[in-house]
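B., you asked whether I could sanity-check this one before it goes into the benchmark set. Here's the sequence:
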Amino acid sequence: MRQIIVIGAGQAGASCVAKLRNGGCTDLITLIGAEPVIPYQRPPLSKAYLMGDMDLERLYLRPESFYRDHDISLRMGTNVTSIHSDAQTISLGEETLSYDDLVLTTGSVPRRLPAQIGGDLEGVYVVRDLADVDAMAPQFQAGQRVLIVGGGYIGLEAASVAAKLGLKVTLVEMADRILQRVAARQTSDYFRALHRSHGVEILEGVGLNRLVGEDEVRGAILSDGSELDVDFVITGVGIGPATALAETAGLKIDNGIKVDAMGRTSCSNIWAAGDCTSFPYQTGRIRLESVPNAIDQAETVAENIMGAEKTYVAKPWFWSDQYDVKLQIAGLNTGYTEVVSRIGEGQTSSFWYYRDGLLVAVDAMNDPRAYMIGKRLIEAGKSADPAVVSDPTADLKPLLKK
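And here's what the prediction gave me:
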């Protein structure tokens, strides 16, 4: 009987195996994950789970019985050491498994602080998986002093949880402003004000020189020469695609595992999906770090393994929860030339990105209506009159009919 092996038991891997079985695939299916727990949601880790508002059982994407009932073999807590594409085998230490189709859903890996500046001291954490959050959770006690390095969404989400729990929070961002890589100045200004209103100290244009301490972190020296006493540190300086296994198979790498529009790698019976991949998008290639992409691309790969010959068309959207604000992002703002602001009441706002007159993205804060209308316009390749968008009293819905 044919064997399909999926390496990586995150959102993409779990979505792939479920789609295979629900689509009528009768092959042997094995899902392999390095973590010792069944597939779970990652976004709540830095929010509800860290706050203590969500327990482990609720994190699971599906109960363990789902995999058993659907005859999906789980190999959790298992590291794949290499892929031998010519022989169509993978190595798990001393064990070897054969495959007919292989799917890589290896996700991404966090960038860590170098050991030379104290990155290996006890009390320095990243927010990537369950073990990371379980390790840092005891530190989240009122009065503790936490330094957050990096002003992206992961850092800001961790800051919001820490501030809500009564910690003293300092966030440093080496760039001129928080969210500089991913958002317009207007969105940066919105979230800077939000965090400062909750007591978070945000230092922009300031980097980390080094952490200090014997075995455990006790302080930080910043690039402006200032010194901080800290109890622990959270690093949120970005992630990169997990391509090490793909490289052992000799697969082509291009800002991630290079796949075609159907999710096939440079080896015809090896596929890939999720954060670890770069794929065709419009006139170029992109890599998306998002749950919706992981699900949709993985399900497309599953359909194509079953012979669908289906092209994956990404519909980028993202979200972030901070305090009582829900940010929803539609589209990609790459290359934007203008931003139009729509300021509502209280914390309701949205920022609309245009590239040479065409709407390409929307950041919506506590404004699901603006988000949904913007998303539908972008997916339809339509724009939106900036005069209407900027008027908070104007009804946006008629824009969909034009």
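One thing to flag: Residues 239 and 292 are 17 Å apart (CA to CA). Otherwise nothing jumped out at me.
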